[in-house]
Design goal:
Belongs to the UPF0102 family. One of its GO terms (molecular function) is endonuclease activity. Keywords: Endonuclease, Hydrolase, Nuclease. This is UPF0102 protein E7746_04045. Pfam families: UPF0102. The protein is an alpha+beta fold. The chain has a single domain, classed as Trna Endonuclease, Chain: A, domain 1 (3-Layer(aba) Sandwich). Helices cover 30% and strands 41% of the residues. It has two helices and five strands; from the N terminus they run αβββαββ. It has a five-stranded mixed beta sheet with strand order 1-2-3-4-5. A hairpin with a 2-residue loop joins β2 and β3. The longest helix is centred in the first third of the chain and has 19 residues. 24% of the residues are buried.
């Protein structure tokens, strides 16, 4: 496995464990909906939460910049498909978790309710 893939898997595990401590109930990991992937799916209260995890070894590039309108559209399309497929009555929330560093020294930033789904149809 390529080094960046290993870093990403590690970051998802760190985010998973962090969210458990924050009271999230983890539902699924690395779920594919058509051509799109959802990193983590959780519930908390009456919400189903779709979580995008960004892992970087350093802060040369702001990880949030990689979550542009196209990426948001893809996440929302996958979430919409998931909610319809499972007939979920929950409110939907989109979170971002950013993990910077390596297993010996890292920081986590959690952005709950990071964005809302755009008001348009999904293809």
């Amino acid at each position: 496995m390529a080094q960046h893939n290993e870093l990403g898997k590690w970051g998802e595990q760190v985010a998973y464990e962090y969210l458990l401590v924050q009271g999230y109930t983890m539902v699924e990991r690395d779920t594919r909906q058509g051509h799109f992937e959802i990193d983590l799916i959780a519930t908390k209260g009456n919400r189903i939460i779709f979580i995008e995890v960004k892992t970087r070894s350093d802060l040369k590039v702001d990880p949030v910049q990689s979550i542009n309108s196209r990426k948001i559209g893809r996440i929302c399309a996958a979430a919409n498909s998931y909610v319809k497929q499972h007939k979920l009555p929950h409110e939907v929330q989109f979170d971002i978790v950013i993990v910077i560093g390596n297993p010996d020294n890292y920081t986590i930033e959690h952005i709950p309710d990071a964005f809302i789904a755009p008001m348009r149809g999904y293809r």
